[in-house]
Structures are given as structure tokens and as C-alpha cells.
Write a structure and sequence with these properties.
Structural class: alpha/beta
Number of strands: 20
Strand content: 5-15%
Helix content: 25-40%
Largest sheet: 7 strands, mixed
Radius of gyration: 28 Å
Distance between the termini: 70 Å
């Protein structure tokens, strides 16, 4: 097997071999494409080179290496050399060579923190890039993504070549299709895989409806986490994953960091809320956008905010009932729910501007349909009552009105955290534009929050004004 440098094959540089003559030899296989050398080394019985660093990598793999030049790793008694070694080179072990070449000689720069680091940090970072880049097929057809989302999707699917189309599948290049949420693409080719993309659970400083760039998205090749009518990759992880101690230690530290720093999905500011004095029990009811797919596909019973509020009032007649509408509705970006203007009839207080993290720490119970606030409440040790089937229900951690036969496993909180925040989402660094870990994503989120939300560009302010006007028009026409 002859591995030719890609630039030689492309004609940009001069090579040594007559490739046309070599290709005529049935015993020689010429590889010219840009291929990772590790699979070649792993299957080789020996490696021949002039001065290529592939020879050093083959030594690390324990392969016999023959050198026709005198690279840095030759002449130490570890390679079969065609040239005499310089007198200054003696004998060395492979461990000594690796220590000198990889630890003592170079300096390494952390690509995310822009500071010196050791080789192990860089190995971990590069390994993450390779792992994430190899998840999906080489070619992906992305259907129906807005112009704003397209460059973001390109980063989250780095490693795959994307082709964007508005609505039609290009069947000649459609081995894999990507869509937003639960959209059902028409004309899906037989055998094509489908990726569903959605916001992650630790997303940004600012609302997604305001087109704030995300730190995390989820890319699901089975279903999507909020659709309880079918399995999802998250549900499979939570049902089947063997959560080893190292992973659970990460989950514990991640959960404690989120709670300590007061982080939530959108990390919006707001005013401090004071728990009423002399109240025996304070119950939080969390409103949602009633047109959201999470209610359509994850709430088999109650689907309206006011119906939920009335149900909780009946169940907790003596409690101090607090209602918090969805921030997109408060911001005028999404339409209010049916009869939501009458919320004050069923609760003691409506909270508009209090940060969710502070609010969750001050209440005794949290009641939700499918809201992510229920998961955030679990992180903070609050009792959570669900009236739909959110992804975190059915595992023995919540009090649930509904159940699904697919969720029979009993999870600990940190197993839920490990599956939901470490194994399932994809994180992309705002600093590098490359894949990152949830731990580093939290660091960037804290830095982002300390700077404050980004000032929206003019087009985003116009977009928000348009959405607000559209929502007001809908309310006027429908009476909602």
C-alpha cells in the first residue's frame, strides 16, 4: 500500500513516484485521498518511509519502521535505517523518544482558553473533535433551515458536507437528511437516515426566539426528546446506558456547578423575588407556549396553561400558588395561551421577571406540563409534578400523571444528568467554533453572562418587532 501525499496527487507539489506506472502493478495499491493514517498503520505489518512523521506514529503503534532518510526518530536503534546515524545519536527506548518528542520538546496551547497546557489536554480536545466529526455520514441534506441557522448547523455537523435546500430532498445526495424538530420531510428516499435538530438544555444568554446563538443543540438520529409518542436517542441512553463511576462523577460536578452558578437554559436576568412570609407551602406553576411541539407530542392530557393552573389550584387549595408565564410570551415573541390573561383568578401571584434559578430555590414544589423548568427544578432538589410526559418523567424522579411503557428503568438524579447533559447534546464553543465539553460550555456561559446579553443587530431588532406585531395581530383576531 502506497500512501501518496494529497497535495502531490492534486498536482500542487512534486512527488517521487511515477503513479501511472505504479497503478499498473496489481500488487501495489495507491491511496491518494486525504485519509487518516491510523487505520493504515493499524493494519500494516511494516512501514517504509523517508522522513515522514507517519514513521514516528508507526513506532508508537509498535510497528517495524524502515527509514530511507534520517528523521528525528531514526538513528536511535528503534528503526531500520538505510543511512548511517549521526555520531551524536546513541541508543534510546521508545518511551524516551516519545517523552522527548511529545512532552519535553514542544509547547502546547489550549485552543479554548488561549493559555499554555500539557499534551494530555490537547489530546483530549483533538480526540473529541475526531469523535464528534465521525458521528454522521459524509454527506447530509439539510431541509428547511433558515439562513440564520445554516452557518450554525454547519458547525454542529462539522465533519459532514452539508447541502441546504428549502423543501425538496435532493435524492442524488440524500444518504442522510437533517430537519429542525419534528418536521416530516416529503419524499424521503428509502434507506436514508434522518437527523432531528433542536435546542439543547443549556443554550445561551438570551432567548432562542430572539435568534441568540446557541452553545448547544441536540442532534437525534432516532426521534426527538420532547416527542413521547416514539423513542428518542435520549430515551435510549437513559434506558440502556451503563453509567460508569467516572461519568457519574462528571455528572455530579456538572449539576453542582449549574446550581451553584444559577444557570438555566436561557440565563435571563431579572428582579429578585421574595418568598411571601408565613406561607406554609409555595407552589410554582410554569407556563409554556401552547403552540409548541412539546405539548402536541408530549402532553397526552392537559395542554393548556390555564387548565394546568386550575388543576393545581384544586390539588393545592391552601398553597401560595405562583404562576410564571413563558419568557417568549412575556417578550411578545410568541402568542399567549388560551385565557392566559385570566391567570390571576387561579393563583396568588404572577411572576414575570424573576430569574428561574432564583425562583426554583425559593419554592416548595414545581408543577409543569412538559417544561424544561421541571428538569431544572430536579437539579435543585425540588419535588416535581408532571402533567405531560417530558423527557425527565417516568424514571422514578418525578410525580407523574401519565406514564409510558418504554420507561421502566429507575434512575438516580446524576444518571439523568449524565444522559441529558453529557451524552445527548452537542456543544460548540463560542471561542473556537469547534466541539467542546459541557464543562467548558458552562465556563463560556458564565463569561457570556458576566458581559451581559449581546446587543441585537438591527435586523434582529426588526425581526423581533415583526414577531411581536404578528403575535398582537393574532391575539386581536382570535381573542386570545
Amino acid at each position: 500500500v502506497l500512501k501518496v501525499h494529497p497535495e502531490v496527487f492534486a498536482g500542487r507539489k512534486q512527488g517521487h513516484f511515477d503513479l501511472a506506472a505504479l497503478k499498473a502493478n496489481s500488487r501495489i495499491k495507491v491511496l491518494a485521498e486525504n485519509q487518516h493514517p491510523v487505520p493504515l498503520i493499524a493494519h500494516a505489518d511494516a512501514v517504509y518511509t523517508v522522513t515522514s512523521q507517519v514513521g514516528f506514529e508507526a513506532l508508537l503503534w509498535g510497528r517495524p519502521v524502515h527509514c530511507f532518510g534520517m528523521p528525528f526518530y531514526a538513528g536511535w536503534g528503534l528503526t531500520q535505517d538505510a543511512l548511517p546515524a549521526p555520531a551524536r545519536r546513541g541508543k534510546a527506548t521508545l518511551e524516551q523518544l516519545a517523552h522527548a518528542a511529545l512532552l519535553r520538546y514542544p509547547r502546547y496551547l489550549d485552543p479554548e482558553r488561549n493559555e499554555l497546557c500539557d499534551v494530555y489536554r490537547l489530546i483530549d480536545w483533538i480526540a473529541l473533535q475526531r469523535q464528534m466529526r465521525g458521528r454522521f455520514p459524509q454527506h447530509v441534506e439539510a431541509i428547511g433551515f433558515s439562513r440564520w441557522k445554516r452557518p450554525i448547523l454547519t458547525r454542529f455537523l462539522d465533519g459532514s458536507a452539508l447541502r441546504f435546500s428549502k423543501s425538496k430532498v435532493r435524492s442524488y445526495d440524500a444518504e442522510c437528511i437533517a430537519v429542525w424538530g419534528r418536521k416530516e420531510p416529503q419524499g424521503l428516499p428509502a434507506g436514508a437516515s434522518l437527523l432531528r435538530v433542536e435546542d439543547g438544555f443549556i443554550r445561551s444568554v438570551g432567548l432562542g426566539a430572539e435568534l441568540t446563538r446557541p452553545l448547544s443543540w441536540v442532534i437525534d438520529d432516532i426521534g426527538i426528546y420532547y416527542d413521547a409518542t416514539r423513542p428518542s436517542r435520549l430515551e435510549q441512553i437513559l434506558s440502556e446506558r451503563d453509567f460508569e463511576p467516572k461519568l457519574l462523577t462528571r455528572a455530579t460536578a456538572l449539576r453542582e456547578s449549574i446550581c451553584r452558578e444559577g444557570l438555566t437554559k436561557y440565563n435571563l436576568g431579572g428582579q429578585h423575588w421574595q418568598r411571601p412570609p408565613d406561607t406554609k407551602k409555595v407552589v410554582l406553576v410554569v407556563g409554556q407556549v401552547e403552540s409548541d411541539a412539546s405539548l402536541k407530542w408530549g402532553a397526552p392530557g392537559i395542554r393548556g396553561n390555564m387548565e394546568l393552573l386550575r388543576t393545581v389550584r384544586t390539588a393545592r387549595p391552601d398553597a401560595w400558588l405562583v404562576y410564571k408565564p413563558h419568557p417568549d410570551v412575556v417578550a411578545g415573541l410568541r402568542q399567549r395561551g388560551k385565557e392566559e390573561d385570566s391567570a390571576e383568578r387561579y393563583c396568588n401571584e404572577i411572576i414575570i421577571d424573576a430569574p428561574m434559578s432564583k425562583l426554583l430555590q425559593a419554592v416548595d414544589e414545581v408543577h409543569v406540563l412538559t417544561s424544561l423548568a421541571g428538569f431544572e427544578a430536579l437539579l435543585r432538589g425540588r419535588p416535581v409534578f408532571t402533567y405531560g410526559l417530558p423527557f425527565y418523567a417516568g424514571w422514578g424522579l418525578t410525580q407523574d400523571v401519565h406514564s409510558t411503557p418504554r420507561r421502566t428503568r429507575r434512575l438516580t438524579l446524576d444518571q439523568l444528568v449524565a444522559g441529558t447533559l453529557i451524552e445527548y447534546p452537542t456543544y460548540v464553543s463560542l471561542t473556537t467554533g469547534r466541539f467542546t465539553t459541557p464543562e467548558r460550555a458552562l465556563e463560556e456561559l458564565l463569561e457570556w453572562r458576566s458581559r451581559g446579553p449581546e446587543k441585537p443587530r438591527l435586523w434582529r431588532r426588526l425581526w423581533r418587532a415583526t414577531l411581536g406585531a404578528y403575535a398582537r395581530l393574532l391575539r386581536r383576531n382570535t381573542g386570545a
